[in-house]
Amino acid sequence: MVAYRRPPRNDALVPWTADHSRRLGERVHRLRTDQGLTQERLAYLAGHSKNLVQKIERSRHTETELNLELKTLYSIADVLGVDGRDLLPY
């Protein structure tokens, strides 16, 4: 019996930075305003608080690193009609 070894992976995790938060905030803001949604309406439809949407969008002006769960991003993306991966700044 021959033992097979999985090749090393080159897709190391990329640390989340304030720049990533800024770009995420810009994308959410642009998509929301393009669709004529208020922050309050987006938050309601996604099942989150208005404060969370404000925090995400505010990060486009600050050096804040957001700490969000992927399910949060995907619920917002769903309301905005895009794939969750489209919000990620990679």
Compute the CA-based radius of gyration.
17 Å
Question: What structural category do the secondary elements indicate?
Answer: mainly alpha
Q: Roughly what fraction of the amino acids lie in strands?
A: under 5%
Number of H- or I-type helical stretches: 4
Secondary structure: number of strands: 0
User: For the report, how would you describe the main beta sheet?
Assistant: none
The first-level CATH class is given as Mainly Alpha
The CATH topology name reads: 434 Repressor (Amino-terminal Domain)
Give the uncertain stretches in residue-range form. none
Whole-number total of structural domains: 1
What would you give as the CATH superfamily? lambda repressor-like DNA-binding domains
> Helical amount among residues, as a percent range?
40-55%
Write the layout of secondary structure elements.
Elements: H1 18-34, H2 39-46, H3 50-58, H4 70-80
Helix pairs in contact: 1-3, 2-3, 2-4
Architecture overview:
The chain is globular, with a radius of gyration of 17 Å. With 90 residues, it is mostly helical. It has a single domain (18-86), classed as Orthogonal Bundle (434 Repressor (Amino-terminal Domain)), CATH 1.10.260. The mean pLDDT is 84. The chain has helices at 18-34, 39-46, 50-58, 70-80. The termini are far apart.
